[in-house]
Structure formats: structure tokens, C-alpha cells
Amino acid sequence: MVEERLSFFAALFKVHENPDLGMWLLYITIVLLSILVFKLGFAKKLPLGKSVVIYSFLILGCTLLTFLGVFLPVAEGLVVAALILIIYKIRLHQEKKQQASAE
User: Fold this and answer.
1) E strands, the chain, where?
2) Which sequence ranges are marked TM in the entry (predicted)?
């Protein structure tokens, strides 16, 4: 059965019952998680034009990831990546605060 092979987010958004709404919700989820992971791990301060180009390609690439994300854990992987990067940023901030107070 198709329902058994769906990824968590695809099953959560009921892609098999309502494909139009489910795929849009999966797409929006993947786009938002991709933007979050990009901002946490890779983004640098760029001029507006370059940022528009980068985010346009990121959103375009998420279209392919959405189709893959129906049966593969794409969104779930992005959640794990975001959590790891959030923990890294928190630890980095704490370490910088400790170094500043030690000086």
C-alpha cells in the first residue's frame, strides 16, 4: 500500500488522500526548513540582489526535493540538520560568552 511507504511529513499532510493540498503543505515545509538550515549553517551577509538569486534557486531546488520527500525522509533530514545547527549555535554563543567573561 502507498500509505505505508510515505515519509512522516507526507503522511502527516495526507498526500495520498488530498494530493493538491498535501503536496503544497509538504513543499512549504521543505522550503521553510531549507531556508532555516541555510540561514543557520551557511548564510553570509550578502547584498539584496545576490540574496534574491540564492533564495530563488533554493526555492526552485525545493520543488525537486518535494517530489522526493513524498517517499524519502527529506523534511525529516532537514529537521535533524536544523536541530544540530541550533545546538551548535547555542553552544558557540555560550562559549563566546564564557570567553568574554574570563577576560
Assistant:
1) none
2) 21-42, 54-87
- Whole-number Å distance between alpha carbons of 51 and 42: 12
Q: Tell me how far apart the alpha carbons of residues 20 and 26 are, in angstroms, rounded to a whole number.
A: 10
Name residues of the chain where pLDDT drops below 50: none
36 alpha-carbon distance from chain centroid = 6
d(CA 16, CA 4): 10
CA–CA dist 95, 74 (Å, integer): 32
Q: What angle (nearest 5°) sits at the alpha carbon of residue 37, between those of residues 35 and 43?
A: 75
Q: Is 70 exposed, middle or buried (0-12, 13-18, 19+ CB in 10 A)?
A: buried
Nearest CA to 36 out of 85, 77, 72 is that of 85
Q: What pLDDT, on the 0 to 100 scale, is given for residue 4?
A: 86
Q: How far apart are CA 65 and CA 27, in angstroms?
A: 8
